[in-house]
Specification:
- The complex is a heterodimer of chains A (about 140) and B (about 160).
- With about 140 residues, chain A is α+β, with helices and mostly antiparallel strands.
- Helices cover about 40% and strands about 25% of the residues of chain A.
- The longest helix of chain B has about 50 residues, at about 10-60.
- Chain B has 3 helices and 7 strands; from the N terminus they run H-E-E-E-H-H-E-E-E-E.
- Chain B has a 5-stranded mixed sheet.
- The radius of gyration of chain B is 29 Å and the shape is rod-shaped.
- With about 160 residues, chain B is of the alpha+beta class.
């Protein structure tokens, strides 16, 4: 004689069940969670972009200052300056012209100022040498 | 025997656990945002610090550009010739300029400044004193001020604020 609870003749099927109520609750929770994540990610992206802009601004200001210094000091002045390798993980380049220093990174750029109208050569991330030759400012990478 | 079976949409347990979960999530998100805001504020402060240092360096180490600049043709403001010896004529020339004009020459778009040069017998203040400022950076340098054949030791203070 079997002692199984199923052996008394009654039939009881046990099946797993995902109820409609549970799915609705889960959907609601996921919706609210998605909203939170969306806001959080947006804020983080905005904060990272703002920081990148500030860093690029310091690079532009530094370049402007060093060029102005070379201009003021006159012929024979020479100085090596080190520029950071990247703008918080993003590559950048520097353009000097018409009293403006433009630092471009990705699709963004910031502007700095200088009294120098133009330079020979270009400024690159890393080590640069600025020389006042009397005829203008020359920039090289030593 | 009949058994009524009813589905259940919201239980007290579920509501309570959801509340706790979202409370913890909100605290985490707010803390993270505050940390980023503080980091950005520090970066802004560093940028201001660099700017103030550069301006002050240019003023106390160089005669500016052109070397004999006037209020009408100045491109770079420098007050010293030689290094750290402030020429009173240049200070007077700077004082004769309109505040906004000096800001334009200095390219201070988002900032205001206050410049103070003091010796025992000489005192001049230019610009705007900080008022309701969020950020203030001060650079102080010891200088010699050349007043009519007399060199006096003094202090040049440059305040950048916003």
């Amino acid at each position: 004689m079997s002692t199984s609870p199923l052996s008394n003749g009654s039939r009881s099927s046990s099946r797993g069940q995902s109820s409609l109520e549970f799915i609705i609750m889960l959907s609601l929770v996921m919706l609210i969670f998605s909203a939170f994540v969306s806001v959080f990610v947006n804020k983080r992206v905005s904060a990272v972009e703002k920081e990148r802009k500030l860093v690029a601004t310091t690079v532009a200001d530094k370049v402007g200052f060093e060029l102005d210094r070379a201009l003021v000091e006159g012929e024979g002045y020479s100085r090596r300056i080190e520029l950071r390798g990247d703008i918080r993980g993003e590559e950048y380049n520097i353009t000097v012209g018409n009293g403006t220093v433009i630092v471009s990174y990705g699709i963004n750029s910031v502007r700095g100022y200088t009294a120098v109208d133009s330079i020979s050569g270009s400024l690159e991330p890393g080590l640069n040498e600025i020389r006042n030759t009397g005829g203008g400012l020359v920039v090289t990478q030593p | 025997m009949s058994r009524s079976r009813r589905g259940q949409m919201f239980s007290t347990d579920f509501i309570l656990s959801s509340f706790v979960f979202f409370l913890i999530l909100s605290v985490a998100v707010l803390s993270w945002n505050m940390a980023y805001a503080e980091r950005n504020r520090f970066s802004e402060f560093q940028a201001m610090n660099q700017r103030a240092f550069q301006f002050t360096d240019m003023m106390v180490r160089t005669p500016g550009y052109p070397r004999d600049w006037t209020a009408n043709n100045v491109q770079i403001i420098g007050l010293a010739r030689p290094d750290h010896v402030i020429q009173v004529e240049k200070v007077e020339e700077l004082a004769s300029m309109n505040y906004n004009e000096t800001k334009r020459v200095m390219h201070l778009d988002r900032y205001d400044y206050f410049l103070n040069i003091t010796t025992e017998d000489f005192h001049t203040s230019l610009g705007k004193q900080p008022s309701n400022a969020d950020n203030i950076v001060v650079e102080r340098r010891t200088v010699l001020v050349n007043t009519t054949n007399l060199f006096q030791r003094g202090t040049l203070e440059f305040v950048l604020w916003n």
